[in-house]
Amino acid sequence: MPLYEYQCMTCQHHFTLIRSMHDTSSPSCPKCKKMDKVERLISNTSFILKGSGWFDSGYNNTKKTSSEKKSEQASKKNEEQKTTDKTTDS
């Protein structure tokens, strides 16, 4: 169940509750016990992507695969061969 942050508008008390996502009833303030002046706050999450395959660990990986390296080497050899052929023809 998720954590929700609330603030009582009467006494300004800030508190956190673990509640079901389907629970729509308004909680009462644990300090002044009023129910009608409690508002749910929007807070930052502590969501962190861990493991391989996410942007920081693998998604932005600029390392080339072996097939990419081979095709790059082949194109370089072709370019070198073309420049060698041009210099020997002249």
Task: Describe the protein in words.
- The chain has about 90 residues and is of the alpha+beta class.
- It has a domain at about 1-45.
- It has helices spanning about 55-60, 65-90, and strands at about 5-10, 15-20, 40.
- Strands 2-1-3 form a three-stranded antiparallel β-sheet, with no helix packed on it.
Strand line-up in the sheet with most strands = 2-1-3
Query: Biggest β-sheet: count, sense, barrel?
Result: 3 strands, antiparallel
SS element count, helices? 2
- Summarize the amount of helix as a percent range: 25-40%
Give the termini separation: 78 Å
Brief overview, please?
The protein has 90 residues and is of the alpha+beta class.
Notable traits:
90 residues, three-stranded antiparallel sheet, alpha+beta, 16% strand
List the SSEs and their pairings:
Layout: E1 3-8, E2 14-18, E3 38-40, H1 55-59, H2 66-89
